[in-house]
Design brief:
The complex is a heterodimer of chains A (about 180) and B (about 550). Chain A is an alpha+beta fold. Helices cover about 50% and strands about 10% of the residues of chain A. Chain A folds into 2 domains: about 60 residues; about 90 residues, Glutaredoxin. Chain B is globular. Classes of the chains: A alpha+beta (about 180), B alpha/beta (about 550).
């Protein structure tokens, strides 16, 4: 076999095990805390998501290998619960509450308005990576319905205008920050 | 005597801007050099007037709200007799310590929430000063059997919705054989429209821990799990802090207070699955698996977490226990009705004037609740229905407004007591759309394990969509009803068994609205878009 073909073949056969390297230190710290705890799967996933903002595929593969679970079991748990995401969220996670109290006070119209303003649907992120739009079953702040949550801040008694304003303000804030950085 | 100012900083207070109010208050007090101590507390329940500020001096309390940062200076001027300029009487909520001049608060009877909004939730000393852990200290002087008898005599029933007598549950768990026993506190408040557990944990976390400790003592459990929603970050924080304090105080660990009892708390954050409110699913979730329910029997009391006897109780159930022991079971039993003792907390929301957390004796009528405590429907619209128990509950019309709020009475109407969500609805809500809203939720949250629930809820949703688009026939209404029965009888767990309730009750009490959609192709409330092409794929599936 000519040399160049052989080389190519070898490359094709072995590209290196992506998991051959040990897990990155931040992930190892999370996993080490929960070794030999058969009930810790959900906690581990929550901590991974808290660190990365979502559940990256590679980290889940590490989790399965390091904790000794089949990968299917890890994904089985991760896909079951609403909390977990598999794609990177935007800088601002905009969540509209869809609880009963919010529904009767018009939260659907707020979602429609935000979808229109941001140009995305539910569970999507804008292309510039700024906003993600989600709905949430209930935030437990029903007496302030309708409720909008941006990252960890809860806004109560929203209207269509005030919700759109809030998003517009964030956009402006970022435009200003962006200019400062480039200047 | 110095003055104490309390600011409610629960999730609801913070959403209304309590942090800014607090900061403004600190600045103004500093500037005026007032002898004032400012305290962060939980939620007093009057969420419609958030941010709430309570000023206590000389044994007198005045409650103000809503107090935005710009109102703080005016309020201090008025309260400390430095002029009333700019102050509005509308900001005054109550001037009496017992709040009897404000019906929303005065008509309530608080047991589980008695210290919410009164104490600093992050301070163990505050809780101890209000009689904290006295009940637990008293409990370990009794034998476990005596505690169970006391709880039985109090007629306390599970506050999670089903209403199983708590004393009986504890007795079964006590009698079950196992090398280890577990106690679980269900704080996975998944019902949209309910926030009782959140308020209780955020406002007074130690009360829940104390109730759990007493339950653990009665049953001989050595480990207590608190399964709390991750959507409630403040509640999780409050619990973590409280558990740390309890350990330092010596009510967890080995040989607690010399009673020979060993116990530890573990917090498990739920990851957002409504079905995990079901006890068997909740246990699977604690075990780190998918939260899918399993067949009962065997009941968790005999074969629960990892196969050990386990008792699962609601936050509110545990929060009731300390008061029962301190005041005696007959006191508690006399508050409620003949069959169920004590009080029940409700999250009163929707299109209502005064929304918030309300705790009332069991047996009060819906009319008192909505029109006297809640102040009626907001902006002068017409009251149409009240929805109880979230997606598992039902809608009751005005004709049933005099129904007593009790497990049996509500069940007879087709609704349920539920965990305590109470949403009032005015004439701008279409009942078909409302039922569809709940079915959308249960269909999404169905775990998919059993067929009647997985496929049945989807079919129900399709039928309701078809009706709300004005494309259904009268025949479809009959189909809807029979399918509801199938799902109710055939489903494995509580989620599926109760999922048809919103559709069944609206069909029973608001049939005219369904008929208007079907026969006249009109939505009386003007909510549903007739002949809209939205959700067309679903529709074709339903017709197939």
């Amino acid at each position: 076999m000519p040399l160049h073909t052989k080389k190519k073949h070898r490359q094709y056969l072995y590209q290196g095990d992506p998991l051959a390297a040990p897990p990155p230190p931040e992930l190892a710290a999370i996993l080490d805390r929960h070794r030999d705890q058969p009930d810790a799967m959900i906690t581990v996933l929550e901590e991974i998501q808290a660190h990365y903002g979502y559940l990256p595929q590679r980290q889940l593969q590490y989790t399965a290998r390091e904790l000794g679970f089949p990968l299917s079991r890890v994904y089985g748990v991760a896909t079951f619960y609403n909390l977990f995401h598999f794609t990177a969220p935007g800088r601002y996670m905009v969540r509209v509450c869809r609880g009963t109290a919010c529904h009767v006070n018009g939260s659907q119209k707020i979602i429609d308005a935000l979808e229109k303003n941001l140009g995305i649907h539910q569970d999507e992120s804008t292309l510039d990576g700024l906003f993600s739009l989600q709905t949430v079953a209930c935030m437990g702040a029903c007496s302030l319905a309708p409720v909008l949550v941006v990252n960890d801040h809860t806004y109560g008694r929203m209207t269509i205008e005030s919700s759109v304003n809030e998003v517009e303000n964030l956009k402006k804030e970022n435009a200003v920050n962006g200019e400062e950085v480039t200047a | 005597m110095s003055t104490l100012i309390r600011v409610g900083t629960s999730t609801c207070g913070l959403a209304a801007g309590a942090d800014q109010t607090l900061a403004a208050l600190e600045r103004q007090v500093e500037r005026r050099q007032l002898d004032v101590r400012i305290q962060r507390t939980g939620c007093l329940g009057a969420c419609h007037r958030e941010p709430l500020v309570e000023v206590l001096s000389n044994g007198n309390s005045v409650l103000y709200g809503p107090i935005t940062p710009e109102r703080v200076a005016l309020l201090l001027d008025q309260h400390f007799g430095m002029g009333e300029r700019g102050f509005s009487r509308d900001w005054l909520v109550s001037q009496k310590t017992d709040k009897s001049d404000y019906p929303f608060l005065g008509r309530q009877f608080k047991i589980t929430t008695q210290l919410c909004g009164i104490i600093d939730p992050n301070s163990l000393d505050d809780y101890l000063a209000h009689g904290g852990y006295q009940a637990f200290r008293a409990a370990i002087q009794h034998t476990p059997e005596e505690i169970i008898q006391i709880v039985k005599d109090s007629h306390l029933r599970g506050r999670g919705g089903a209403g199983f007598p708590t004393g009986m549950k504890w007795e079964i768990t006590r009698k079950s054989k196992g090398t280890q026993k577990f106690i679980i506190c269900n704080a996975d408040e998944g019902d949209p429209g309910a926030f009782m557990d959140r308020t209780m944990i955020e406002g007074d976390p130690h009360r829940v821990l104390e109730g759990m400790l007493m339950g653990a003592y009665a049953m001989g459990a050595s480990k207590g799990y608190i399964y709390v929603r991750a959507e409630y970050p403040l509640a999780v924080k409050a619990l973590r802090e409280a558990i740390k304090q309890a350990a330092a105080y010596g009510v967890t660990g080995k040989n607690i207070l010399g009673s020979g009892m060993n116990f530890e708390f573990v917090i498990k954050e739920g990851a957002g699955a409504f079905v995990c409110g079901e006890e068997t699913a909740l246990m699977r979730s604690i075990e780190g698996k998918r939260g899918m329910p399993t067949m009962r029997p065997p009941y968790p009391s005999e074969h629960g977490l990892w196969g050990f006897p386990t008792s699962i109780n609601n936050v509110e159930t545990f929060a009731s226990v300390p008061s029962i022991l301190l005041n005696g079971p007959t006191w508690f039993a006399n508050i409620g009705t003949a069959k169920s003792g004590g009080t029940k907390a409700f999250a009163l929301t929707g299109t209502i004037k005064k929304s918030g957390l309300v705790e009332v004796p069991i047996g009060m009528t819906l009319r008192e609740m909505i029109f006297e405590i809640g102040g009626g429907v907001k902006s002068g619209r017409e009251f149409k229905a009240v929805q109880l128990g979230g997606p598992s509950g039902g809608c009751l019309p005005f004709a049933l407004i005099d129904t007593h709020i009790d497990y049996e009475d509500l069940k007879a109407t087709g609704a349920i007591m539920g965990s305590g969500g109470m949403v009032s609805v005015d004439d701008t809500t279409c009942m078909v759309d409302f039922a569809r809203f709940f079915l959308t939720f249960t269909q999404e949250e169905s775990c998919g394990k059993c067929v009647p629930c997985r496929i049945g809820t989807r079919k129900l949703l399709n039928l309701l969509t078809k009706i709300s688009r004005g494309r259904a026939t009268e025949h479809d209404l009959g189909k809807l009803e029979s399918l509801c029965e199938t799902v109710r009888l055939g489903s494995l767990c509580g989620l599926g068994q109760t999922a048809p309730n919103p559709a069944l009750t609206t069909l029973r009490y608001f049939k005219d609205e369904y008929l208007a959609h079907v026969l006249d192709h009109k939505c009386p409330a003007g909510v549903c878009e007739m002949n809209s092409s939205q959700h067309e794929p679903e529709l074709t599936m339903a017709m197939a």
